[in-house]
Amino acid sequence: MADTKMIVTATRRYGTRSLQAGEEITLNGPRARLAAALGIAKPAPDKPAEDLSDLRSRYATVVGKRPFHKWDAKALQAKIAEAEAQ
Fold first, then answer.
1. pTM summary value
2. Which of 24, 29, 55, 78 has its CA 20 to 30 A from that of 71?
3. Are strands 3-8 and 12-14 parallel, antiparallel or unpaired?
4. 34 contacts 28 by C-beta, under 8 angstroms
5. 51 backbone dihedrals φ, ψ, rounded to 5°
6. Is 26 helix (H, G, I), strand (E, B) or coil?
7. Dihedral of CA 74/72/3/43: which sign?
8. How open is the CA angle 80-83-86, to the nearest 5 degrees?
């Protein structure tokens, strides 16, 4: 069975994990279909504009400190733009 990358739609518990809205998870075929049917998660876009790890390293370079671990790509891009504008 192929693994599917999914984006969590709302903060909730799934199995033994506490999932945050917007978090990316990987589920196998039947579990991915079940999560989509129940509205727990939706399929992730094929390729993000910028990889999260790249944004984190770019933030560390621009700002000079490590980013908050729960920031998503949008938040990191906003913080980087804000730091570069100053």
1. 0.50
2. 29
3. unpaired
4. no
5. -70, 140
6. strand
7. negative
8. 150
What gap in Å lies between CA 50 and CA 57, rounded to an integer?
12
Return the closest-CA partner of residue 80 out of 57, 62, 53: 62
Tens of pLDDT, residue by residue over 13-71, are 877 888 888 888 899 889 999 989 988 899 888 765 568 889 999 999 999 999 998 89
| Residue 20 identity (one-letter amino acid) | Q
Instruction: Say whether 38 sits in a helix, a strand or coil.
Output: helix
Separation of CA 68 from chain center:
13
Q: Which amino acid is located at 63 in the chain? A: V
Closest CA to 10 of 23, 1, 26: 23
d(CA 38, CA 71): 26
